[in-house]
Amino acid sequence: xxxxxxxxxxxxxxxxxxxxxxxxxxxxxxxxxxxxxxxxxxxxxxxxxxxxxxxxxxxxxxxxxxxxxxxxxxxxxxxxxxxxxxxxxxxxxxxxxxxxxxxxxxxxxxxxxxxxxxxxxxxxxxxxxxxxxxxxxxxxxxxxxxxxxxxxxxxxxxxxxxxxxxxxxxxxxxxxxxxxxxxxxxxxxxxxxx
Length: 194
What we know:
Elements: H1 6-28, H2 38-45, H3 49-55, H4 59-75, H5 87-104, H6 106-115, H7 118-138, H8 150-170, H9 177-188
C-alpha cells in the first residue's frame, strides 16, 4: 500500500471541513439552529458522521468555525501592510469592510442571526471584530504612542461598530452602504452631525 501524498490529504480535509461549514450555513437559511442535527449537516454535505467527528466535537464547534470564516472574509486582508494616519481611518476601513460584506451576504448573515441565539451571534461577532480592531491599532506605527490605551480604543470602536452593523442588518438596509459610510464619517468628523 502506498502512502497518500500529505498535500492531497490536507486538501481533502480542507474540502470536507468547507463542505460541512457550507452545509450548516445553508441549513440555517431555512431551519432554526436548534432543529439542525449533526446528521442533517452531514447529509447536506454528503459527509459521513464519523468524518464529521474527526474534525469537530459537536455542532457548536462547527458553527464557531463557520463564523470565524465569515470574520476572516470580512477582515482577511488585515495582514497587508496598510498604514493608517488616525483611529478614524481604521474605523472607516472597518466600517467599509463590514457594510460591504453585509450587503453582499445579507441573506446568509440574516439567516444565521435570526436562527441562532442573538446573544451568541453578537458575542462571536464582537469577539472577532474586537480582535481585528486591536490588530489594526497595534500594527500601525502612528498609534504606538497614542495617549488613549489600545484596549480602551478597541472596546469603544468595537461596541459602536458591531451595534451599528447589527442595527443596519435588522432594519433591512434602510440606508445604502454609501449612506451608512457617509454617516459614520460624519459622526467621526470634528464637525459632527450638526
